[in-house]
Each structure stands twice: as C-alpha cells, then as structure tokens.
Amino acid sequence: MGFHSKPNIFVGHVKIKVENLERSLKYYQEVIGFKILEQTKTTAKLTTGGKTNVLSIEQPENVVPKQGKTTGLYHFALLLPHRSDLANIVNHFIENRIPIGSSDHLVSEALYLSDPDGNGIEIYVDRDPSVWDWNNGEVAMTVDPLNFKDLLSTGKQKQPWKGLPAGTVMGHIHLHVSELKKTEEFYIKGLGFEVVNRYGSQALFISTGKYHHHIGLNTWNGVGAPPSSVNSVGLKSFTLILPNEEARNHVIANLENIGSTVTIENDIFITLDPSGNRIQLEI
Question: Are residues 14 and 235 in contact, defined by beta-carbon separation less than 8 angstroms?
C-alpha cells in the first residue's frame, strides 16, 4: 500500500542487543521465522526474503540484562503481507505452545510477545486503509479483543509453517521516552513526521503519508526515565529511510535548528532523540 516505501519516511531496520546470541538466533529462527543473512561471533543480520536485512541482533561485550524503567524499546513491529499470514503464525504459536498477547486496533490486528531477553515484538497485519476512521487529522485506534475464530478461518489449512513470508517488513517501532514535549518537537519539526493519534497525555503515534503509525512514543516507564546503559539488553538503534539526499539534508537542517545534532560514523548519519534513542538516517 506504499506506506513503507519512498517518498514516505519509514522505519526500515531495527538493531537490538541480547544476552546470548546463540539463544536468540534459535528463537528468532524457530519461533518468529527469520532467516540468517549474515553472522559473526557477536552479531547477526536477519531477513525474511533473503535479501533485505530487517532485524539485526548483537551480543555486546560485558552485556547486562534488560533494565526496567528506562527509555528505549517498547516493541518493534513486523508487518505481514496478508491476513492469512497472521492466521498461519497463530497456528504455529499454538502448535508450539508459545504464549502471546493480542489486540484488534481497528486499523490492524496484532499479536504480542517477547524474546528471551524481554525485547518486545509485535506481529501484525493492516486492515485496508479505506476502513480506517480519520477525524480532524487523527486516526481511530483502540485495544479491542482479537477475533481469533474469524482470523483463523483465513489460514491455509494443512500446510507446514515456513517462517515469515518474504513480503514481511518492519512496520513500525514503539519507544519508551522520558517526556513528550521535546520528543514531539524532535520527531515532528526535526524529522518531518505528523501526529496521527494522541493516546491521552502519555503516548503519541506519528507517521508520514497518513499511515496509522510508523513510530509510537510513550512515557509508560515514567516521566524522566533515564536511558539504559550502553551494554544492556534492548534497543541499539533503528533506521529511518528518507526519500533522497535532498530530503536528508533538509532533515539535518531542521534537526540543527531545534538544537539537535547529527554526526557521521563510518559514512552513516546518526542522531539521538531527546531520550537517547539512536537513529540512523539513510536514503
């Protein structure tokens, strides 16, 4: 539907930190359904279609467990191509007794689970945008119960599960942040997103191209929450895909105008949001 392609700005890749790479690779292959694209002793790049690196995992030196009440990853969200794909992975989870949460968000149907280190994962499918309810620039979203009976009626019967389908993309990322005022300025005035939903005074959902959200931002770990340590389990970075070099230069200028900085490390443009979440700006 074009929400995860140029000229939109969208999340193309997420990198997370884990305690034990071998344990995590087993989980992400056997439970979630990724394939390994590249691997070293401490890192792995994961793919669904064999070409694009959607998720990377890294075992930092002197790694420490996930720290509570900090900023960083709430969850990353994998968007499946078809509703039947979501039904198929539900059947896979049932067969392997994998505990999951679930929700009907009106705009999408979603499953929730955590990896062995507590990194949050959402796996979802969008409803057709024609049924999304927009009012005064905001899209209606909720947390209704998921209708599993109806969902499972769309699955492919008596076929072995083959992992995540090739068309799976990084649909969005949801972050814990320390506050929302400066955060909103950073993502809206700096990066060029639009607010598409305000969840009370504790969460914002933002996007480009009228998607329901490319990024979620919340203060549920507490206003003033500190960033986690560099070597702790959690978010390492995420990548925003920008339309072209001109657009990136425009974003860099906007970020600098609001007092943020952009650095270049190994030819990669990097900025930090007000809560210390690390963002790579790619084209």
Answer: yes
Could you report how far apart the first and last alpha carbons of the chain are, in Å? 20
Residue environment code for 96-112, b if the CB has 16+ CB neighbours within 10 A, otherwise e:
eebebebbbbbbbbbbb
Is the pLDDT score of 1 beyond 70? no
Contact 188, 210 (CB under 8 A): no
Token pair in block for residue 230: 């560099």
CATH number at residue 169: 3.10.180.10
H-type helices in the chain, by residue range?
21-27, 83-95, 148-152, 181-185, 245-257
% of the chain residues with pLDDT over 70: 99
Instruction: Identify whether 89 is part of a domain.
Output: no
User: ∠ CA(179), CA(180), CA(184), 5° rounding?
Assistant: 140
Q: Say which residues have a Cβ less than 8 Å from residue 165's Cβ, sequence separation at least 6.
A: 48, 80, 81, 82, 85
DSSP H or E run through 217 = strand 215-218
pTM equals 0.97
Residue 150 lies in a domain: no
In a domain, 230, yes or no: yes
Question: Whats the size of the chain, residue-wise?
Answer: 283
Task: Tell me if 54 is assigned to some domain.
Answer: yes
Q: How many domains does the chain have?
A: 1
150: Cβ–Cβ under 8 A, 6 or more apart, which residues? none
Structural domain that includes position 263: 10-80+112-139+165-282
pLDDT digits (tens, 9 = 90+) for 42-56: 999 999 988 999 999
Pairing of strands 278-282, 268-272: antiparallel
Q: Hey, is 185 helix, strand or coil?
A: helix
